[in-house]
Specification:
9 helices, 8 strands, three-stranded antiparallel beta sheet, binds 2'-deoxycytidine-5'-monophosphate, single chain, Rossmann fold, alpha/beta
């Protein structure tokens, strides 16, 4: 029986983190946890309720009332918020445009980080996000930090969105990435940064399989050590 490890994957928006994380989890028979989906779910709920980022009392109320939990389906921990499985609702441009702003709010981060840590206690998790290697899974046995050329990121994301029947122009997707990168990497509370022990991978010229094989090699080095 191989030992189980936790794998943290961080990086800017659209660098291929979730595609890699899902494929890694499937190959290793681990569980994939999408921390970004949790920030998106809160954003979706707050927008639906008409609660804006400066409305601290109502945000605190929603956080104290909400039930966010996961149900394991295959190798993915599917997110349920107040009993509803959210997926397509989380990927709209409305959510894209606001998620980074809500993600700067410390009370939101504290609540979500607590849930993320609980999910990873069992080991054998692949979690992707912005602060996984630096805050959530500081002791992850393998940490990866993905980067990718901006135009390649945009083209790949545009195609992904189209597959979900969400249509946005190249410029709209690019502007959203630029804005989110800036907010995510400059916020006060747990900004996006490469952990000192994370391995940097440039995903610009790699196919999904090439990236997966690179990450698998790194994972097996740790697992078999
Ligand atoms: O990974 P994603 O694009 O689905 O993440 C959406 C947003 O959520 C991202 O722009 C910032 C926020 N986020 C975060 O602040 N911390 C994380 N660990 C994951 C996501």
């Amino acid at each position: 029986m191989h030992k189980k490890i936790n794998i943290a994957i961080d990086g800017y928006s659209g660098c291929g983190k979730s595609t890699l994380a899902k494929a890694l989890a499937k190959k290793l028979k681990y569980i994939y946890i999408d921390s970004g989906a949790m920030y998106r779910a809160i954003t979706y709920l707050l927008l639906k309720e008409g609660i804006y980022p400066e409305d601290t009392p109502n945000i605190d109320r929603i956080l104290s009332e909400m039930d966010m939990h996961f149900k394991q389906e295959g190798f993915i921990d599917q997110l349920y918020l107040n009993g509803v499985h959210l997926e397509k609702e989380l990927r709209t441009m409305e959510v894209n445009n606001m998620v980074s702003q809500y993600s700067t709010i410390s009370n939101i981060r504290t609540q979500l980080v607590r849930i993320q840590k609980q999910q990873a206690v069992r080991k054998g998790c692949v979690m992707d996000g912005r602060d996984i290697g630096t805050v959530v899974l500081k002791d992850a046995e393998l940490k990866l930090f993905l980067v990718c050329d901006m135009d390649i990121r945009v083209a790949r994301r545009k195609k992904e969105l189209e597959e979900k029947e969400i249509f946005a122009t190249f410029e709209t997707v690019k502007t959203n990435f630029i804005e989110r990168d800036l907010i995510d990497s400059t916020r006060e509370d747990s900004p996006l940064q490469q952990a000192s022990d994370a391995i940097l991978i440039d995903n610009s010229m790699l196919s999904p399989d090439e990236l997966l094989n690179k990450a698998l090699d790194l994972a097996f080095k740790v697992i078999n050590n």
